Amino acid sequence: MITEDVSADDTLSARVASDAFARYAARMPKTESFDVTTGVDLQEVDNAVNQAKKEIAQRYDFKGQKAEIEYDRPHAKLRLTASDEFYLNALWNVLRERMISRKVPVKNLHREKVEPASGGSLRQEVQLTQGISPETARAIVKLIKDQKFKKVQSQIQGDAVRVSAPSRDELQEVIALLRQQDYDVELQFGNYR
Between 20 and 30 A from 23 (CA), which of 52, 79, 180, 193? Predict the structure, then answer.
């Protein structure tokens, strides 16, 4: 009989504690947040590369010319190889058009220096940016702090920046501000809570 009273008391005290926490949480302002990230959909890049290869194989101006696109998905990079600089640029334009049609942000494709390859041809690597660089993340955080938004917090989390505030309106202002800036990548805003 004593154990029944103790368990009833434990249940009652747990319910009281739960109600107290619920009242406390209701008084606390809710914090909204979103993440600033960047990246490309690697499957869409694969589709765009395949489409570009088909187009190059069918185009008359590429007949008899060396024009190749290699996609290294694990390392997120492309390698373009062509017989001369004119065809290398033409190859890039075809690839870029396919990327745009597949909604891959072209701003996240960074062309490296043109290098000589075997047989007198030229080679160029294209890096696919996945994640915000530490320098860009620091610049984003600094910009948000310099604007002196009320109660807006920003912090770097790996290759993303988390922005939080009690008001969704302030978060919308931050997004509008970041869209006006020109960084070396296309910013994406996700995990909006």
Answer: 193
Provide mean pLDDT across the span 39-58.
92
Q: What is the CATH number of the domain that holds 97?
A: 3.30.70.990
Two tokens at 121?
Answer: 């041809």
* Residue 113 structural domain: 42-128
Backbone angles phi, psi at 192, to 5 degrees: -75, 115
- Residues 6 or more apart whose CB falls under 8 angstroms from that of 171 comprise 32, 33, 34, 152, 163, 164, 165, 192
User: Distance between CA atoms of 95 and 57, rounded to whole angstroms?
Assistant: 13
Residue 151 lies inside a defined structural domain of this protein: no
Amino acid (one-letter) located at 170: E
Give per-residue burial for 28-41: e unless 16+ CB within 10 Å, then b.
eeeebebbbbbbbe
Q: What is the pTM of this model?
A: 0.73
